[in-house]
Each structure stands twice: as structure tokens, then as C-alpha cells.
Specification:
Blueprint (H helix, E strand, L loop, with lengths): L2 H6 L6 H22 L9 H12 L4 H20 L3 H17 L20 H16 L6 H10 L1
Helix pairs in contact: 2-3, 2-4, 2-6, 3-4, 4-5, 5-6
């Protein structure tokens, strides 16, 4: 069996759909804001301003800023439908781990009351935990991965 097929394998667990949809509801506005900017409820700076902010203000090399935006946007859609769930979950976990390092200076807690200069890293811990759980579980019963797994078993 090809190693990519093995990564795609999943069982019929139903917990993965809860993780996938919860994560997508949380992450999709972030990705869409980075790609489209002020677009309905998504807010954000849009692609050009986000790239500029990440490269000029945060010192991230262009290629890594681009990869972070692409992963945050496209991998979130892949997670929703359960396509290559393990790979996309690991990519998103990496993006969130790196993003958290830019939030350490603001402490643990999110900036609920506007008393700090920025957000803490508690959000990132939740996102990484959800993605690592999906990397272990796979897409579950209601995923494209499961559909493919069933085909491969026949």
C-alpha cells in the first residue's frame, strides 16, 4: 500500500466530524480574512497587507508567510470535507505552533478586555490540540478519507 494511502486511512469514528467542523468554524474566518480582507464578517487585512505585515513587521521570509496563508486557508477547507485529514491537520498544527511564538510576549490569556497590546497564546493551544487529535484519528466516518478507505478495502 502506498504511504499516502496509509496516511489517508481512517476508521468510522464519529468524533472527527465534531473536531473538523468546530475547528473550521473557528479557523475559516482567520484564513478568509488573510486572503480576502474585509469580506463580510471575516475582517482581516487581505492578502497583500497580510503578506506585507508578516514580512516587514514580523520578519517572516516571504515564502513562509505565503505558505502560512495558503495552509491556513486551503487546509481548513480540506479539513471540513475530510480530505487528507492527517496531512492537513499536521500542516495546520505547525502553522499554529509557529504563530503561537509571536504571541508569547502577550502572555497566556487572550485579550478579552483590551488591557494588553495583543493576544496571548491560549487559542493556539486549543487549535494545536484539535489538529493533533485529527492527525491521530483521521477524518472519521463522515469524510472523503473514509470514502476512499472503504474503496481501498474492497
Amino acid at each position: 500500500m502506498h504511504y499516502l494511502t496509509q496516511l489517508q486511512e481512517t476508521d468510522d469514528n464519529k468524533a472527527s466530524i465534531i473536531l473538523r467542523i468546530s475547528f473550521a468554524i473557528m479557523m475559516l474566518p482567520h484564513g478568509m480574512g488573510k486572503v480576502f480582507g474585509v469580506f463580510g464578517v471575516f475582517g482581516g487585512m487581505g492578502f497583500d497587507k497580510t503578506i506585507h505585515h508578516m514580512t516587514e513587521n514580523m520578519g517572516i521570509p516571504y515564502i513562509f508567510a505565503l505558505l502560512a496563508i495558503v495552509v491556513e486557508f486551503l487546509s481548513t477547507f480540506a479539513i471540513i470535507i475530510g480530505y487528507q485529514t492527517r496531512i492537513n491537520a499536521l500542516l495546520l498544527a505547525i502553522v499554529m505552533i509557529v504563530a503561537s511564538t509571536f504571541h508569547f510576549q502577550h502572555g497566556f490569556y487572550m485579550n478579552w478586555f483590551g488591557q494588553k497590546a495583543g493576544e496571548g497564546f491560549e487559542f493556539h493551544i486549543l487549535a494545536v490540540g484539535m489538529m493533533l487529535a485529527l492527525a491521530v484519528l483521521g477524518g472519521g466516518k463522515y469524510s472523503l478519507d473514509y470514502t476512499q478507505t472503504k474503496k481501498d478495502l474492497k
